[in-house]
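Take one protein record:
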Amino acid sequence: MSCRSPNTTADPLWARIVILALVATFLAGVLILPLVSVFFEALRKGLPAALEAIATEDARAAIKLTLLTAAIAVPFNVAFGLCASWAVAKFQFPGKSFLITLIDLPFSVSPVVAGLIYVLVFGAQGWFGPWLLDHDIKIVFAVPGIVLATIFVTFPFVARELIPLMQEQGVDEEEAAISMGASGLRAFWSVTAPNIRWGLLYGVLLCNARAMGEFGAVSVVSGHIRGLTNTMPLHVEILYNEYDYVGAFAVAALLCFLAVVTLVLKTVLEIAQPRSRAGRH
């Protein structure tokens, strides 16, 4: 005679309701309500006023600089993420754990500290400052410094998405392809790339979202030169401090819209990924 033990993993109905209610309340108060309020404030004086605020010369310069920074930082981090994840997942070498620690470093270092690092290295009183001044090269308080700071705070995203995927994949398929005469590059495009493409796209989306929304590191190295080194988050701060609330919230709403688009694409990838795996199986 067998005795069935009660299912200890099933939560009571009331507990599930309470937990879901707490989660919904938290999301509504911390995420949804502030997001809605940004769009509400941006449209307080009507859509034409919001569009006019976005169309100003300084706002357009901030938008262009934000997109330029993301356009440079994201491909760089994709290249780094592919190389770093390939090295970590496919090879054994001294210092492998240290490399993984370095990849995670921007997650634990404050973005403001990251910006100060570049000021210390490339600033006028920094290590290379006098040499840069002698050769009329501007890094800090210019676009290169903004790009470098953005790369620093965003480079873990792609690598951290790809490392587990490549480790799970192993090396058997690549070795089989190479044994059949394929070159290393051909083995990567034919075997490795199809297995990591969803993770790569996911990492690119996260990296791009962080690059466009970065404030702390960029604020330190930009110099806040209006129309030249202000990205969209910095432009929002300036307009808000000048009590131009419509302009500030209009640009902030544009940033939120880009974030929502990123979230939608992320959700689509999460839905498509298991379907793609099921189709391959």
